[in-house]
């Protein structure tokens, strides 16, 4: 089981769902003992596909969240250098 952390976002991943579930429980218990709280609304517990840092991750595949793609496509093509800078 692998733990990936970016600031306060945590992701546990592994080949076996039982192992991931057991390690997730250990991690949640550890965080609780340290006085840290986990948002139940953000918790994705042993899912096949998860949203993490604006990406959908599933079995070795990573893709952009469709909502983010929709937002980018709705901007339209920039017509000036200033508009390019605003997008970036």
Automatic annotation (TrEMBL):
Protein name according to UniProt: ribonuclease H
Signal peptide positions (record): none
Family: Belongs to the beta type-B retroviral polymerase family. HERV class-II K(HML-2) pol subfamily.
Enzyme category, top tier: hydrolase
Domain Reverse transcriptase as annotated: residue spans: 1-57
EC number: 3.1.26.4
One Pfam family hit: RVT_1
Any GO molecular function: RNA-DNA hybrid ribonuclease activity
Lineage, uppermost ranks: Eukaryota, Metazoa, Chordata, Craniata, Vertebrata
Organism: Ciccaba nigrolineata
């Amino acid at each position: 089981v692998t733990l990936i952390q970016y600031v306060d976002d945590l992701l546990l991943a592994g080949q076996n769902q039982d192992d991931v579930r057991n390690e997730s429980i250990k991690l949640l218990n550890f965080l609780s003992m340290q006085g840290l709280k986990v948002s139940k609304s953000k918790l994705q517990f042993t899912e096949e596909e998860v949203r993490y840092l604006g990406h959908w991750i599933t079995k070795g595949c990573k893709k952009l969240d469709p909502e983010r793609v929709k937002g980018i496509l709705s901007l339209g093509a920039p017509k000036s250098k200033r508009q390019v800078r605003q997008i970036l």
